[in-house]
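Now for a chain:

_____
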Amino acid sequence: EVIHDCMKTWVILADAVIAEHQKHVTIDELFFAEDICYNHGSLISPEYIKEFLMPYYRQVISNLKARQLDKVRHLYVQVDTDGFANPIIPLYMEYIGMDVMSPFEVASGCDVVEIGKHFPNLVILGGLDKRELAKGKAAIDRMLERIISPMKKRGGFIPTCDHGVPAEVLYEDYLYYRKRVVEIQ
């Protein structure tokens, strides 16, 4: 009961804030900064996700869509989660129409090339291993060559680091990584 009460309160707040913005603009993306996963999968069971999250997310999305100034513009629903997200992707796609996900943490076993094969309509942001950036230019090139070419063919991929860039990444190597991403694309 407490969780449902918290979620109902969240819907009231989120809906009110979104409604104020929608008086002036059409919303292009609804971003759920969820962090529902850890390195082995979801923090709660799919049944609890369906019970405690999905009805409330659906309500916010439904209300938002009903108020859109431009009724034909697509609303992108993005979920951001750390950890091994693979098992929950179908759940979020089915229940809330998620069509964008990030950041696909490599250390937790997320491989955007494989995920892209299984979910061809999912827009993917992230999936570039922050740890590889710290290993220098050769490691950066190997990582980018493995990921960028197949994802370029697939489409729907924005190549970004799978989290914040760690302090051990040399600035020169970070600039090299960004330059290489642009060159390869």
User: Anything to note?
Assistant: The first helix runs from residue 2 to 22. Residues 61 and 96 are 8 Å apart (CA to CA). The mean pLDDT is 96. The two ends are 50 Å apart (CA to CA).
